Automatic annotation (TrEMBL):
This is Arginine/ornithine succinyltransferase. GO terms for biological process: L-arginine catabolic process. Keywords: Acyltransferase, Arginine metabolism, Transferase. SUPFAM superfamilies: Acyl-CoA N-acyltransferases (Nat). InterPro entries: Acyl_CoA_acyltransferase, Arg_succinylTrfase_AstA/AruG. Coiled coil: none annotated. Gene3D superfamilies: 3.40.630.30.
Length: 369
């Protein structure tokens, strides 16, 4: 059996350097991973502590995963979950509303904390040199398997803040307009502050009164609710999962926030929890040569928390009549699975047309806030 090409696991202390490189590579607008080593070191410590906690309900936990190349040990990307966003520091957005008595169709943007206490998926980034088949799917979907197995750790409502429009030089058309009312800070500085500054500082930075689009230039208006060109694949994946935009946008780049109910997310509903049957690597699974199982791509995860592991593979076979997933010994060892123990898997080869279309261009970078 071929070895694992890539594996998802909780972040560790020795991943800090790679995380710092990702924060630099991702550039302005990636507010959940700012280019500040001390900030990132605290984030890693907090993530490790979060995975180790025994919980009955969500709190300030932050679960940060890394995607590791099994052959080289390189960190290919990251993905994360904020268990209860906005509890330790306000989670603010602009709410889009029709301007009262407007004849021009202009809108009003009002600051609010609508999503306080919701679970936020975040920090999704696939490094450009590690683009390959199923890497983006693994980074995105693994969070839903982890949440499906541990629903008590998360809110019933899941949100994702999508990176808004900015150009190659880091200029945001929305912020270029808003900064004239907010201290004239450049976009890179303000997005760095979004991740590191105190709530009081951010509150003083932004205007308190509602903003009217009637005074905005066309470029800024067009950016409201739109995503960065390299974030489109990530948004398409979430839309295929059932996420929808309800009119809330980011304070700095006006990128959309999308939401879904945990128990309605496609990957959560279609995942299967079952027992493991471990077989010898040289022995084909009972139904391996059956057309329904041949080259069937699956996302497989163990059921641990601090020792969580997941990957994408074609080496396992689902035996529905026995409620067993047949797994080669070497794959089981790498995922920490035991014979007769539990696993969770999600078929990827049977995704619907909308989701398949989201992955037609595998060369694109995937990232969101």
């Amino acid at each position: 059996m071929r070895g694992l090409a890539m594996i998802i696991r909780p972040i560790q202390h020795n991943d800090l350097q790679a995380l710092h490189e990702i924060a630099r590579e991702s550039g302005p607008g990636f507010t959940s991973l700012v280019d500040d080593r001390d900030y990132l070191e605290k984030k890693v410590r907090h993530a490790i502590d979060s995975f180790q906690r025994e919980l009955h309900r969500p709190g300030d936990e932050h679960y940060l995963f890394v995607l590791e190349d099994e052959a080289t040990g390189d960190i290919m990307g990251t993905t994360g979950i904020e268990a209860s966003a906005g509890d330790d520091r306000p989670l603010c957005h602009f709410r889009r509303e029709a301007e009262p008595a407007s004849r021009s169709g202009s809108e009003r943007l009002t600051r609010c904390t609508h999503y306080t206490g919701c679970t936020e998926i975040c920090s999704l980034y696939l490094r450009p040199r590690y683009r390959r088949a199923n890497a983006g799917k693994l980074l995105s979907k693994v969070r839903f398997l982890f949440m499906a197995q541990n629903p008590h750790r998360f809110s019933a409502t899941i949100i994702a803040e999508m990176r808004g429009v900015s150009d190659a030089s880091g200029q945001s058309p929305f912020w270029n307009w808003l900064k004239t009312r907010s201290g004239h800070l450049d976009f890179a500085t303000v997005t760095r502050l979004a991740g590191t500054a105190t709530p009081e500082m951010l509150d003083a930075l932004l205007p308190a009164e509602p903003l009217s689009t009637a005074t905005m230039p066309t470029e800024a208006i067009r950016a409201i609710g739109q995503v960065h060109e390299q974030t489109r694949p990530a948004l398409k994946m979430l839309e295929a999962e059932g996420f929808r935009h309800r009119g809330f946008v980011d304070l700095f780049d006006a990128g959309p926030t999308v939401e879904a109910k945990l128990n309605e997310i496609t990957s959560s509903r279609h995942s299967t929890r079952c027992r493991v049957q471990i077989i010898d690597d040289s022995m084909p699974a009972i139904t391996r040569n059956h057309p329904g199982n041949r080259d069937n791509v699956m996302l497989i995860a163990n059921t641990a928390v601090s020792d969580f592991r997941a990957t994408v593979t074609t080496a396992a076979a689902w035996l529905p009549h026995h409620n067993l997933l047949s797994v080669p010994e070497s794959l089981a060892r790498q995922l920490g699975l035991s014979d007769g123990g539990m696993t969770c898997f999600l078929p990827l080869a049977t995704t619907g047309k909308a989701e398949a279309n989201a992955h037609t261009n595998s060369s694109e970078v995937l990232y969101a806030h």
